[in-house]
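#onboarding

Welcome to the new folks! Below is a worked example of what a typical request in this channel looks like: someone posts a single protein sequence, and someone else replies with the predicted structure as tokens. Don't worry about understanding the tokens yet, we'll cover that in week two.

Example request:
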Amino acid sequence: MWKEKLKIYDDLVSRCSRFERKGKTVPYTSANGYMFSLLNKEGEIGIRFSKDVQKKYIEEFSTTIYKSHNAIIHGYVLIPDQMLDDLDRVAGYLDESYDHVMSLPPK
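Example response:
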């Protein structure tokens, strides 16, 4: 299952031309010193948003906050599996997340 989700995550990230996937054992994306997406060991994808947008998307996607290694990852939204049927749509959210971290002060 995890390898299948890794293929989906790689396909998702490849649809966004401004950044690339990093990490060997824990795949993620980062920019401006901030991680903004992550594939955890359970095969779940999380994307980072501002607090206001996070609340909006949790409701809109009928999902929850994102967890990895049994810890809450603040600012991240769990992307439900049913959304992965439309990777172009999810790629739009990933691009939005990239824009968000690029608006933050560099780390």
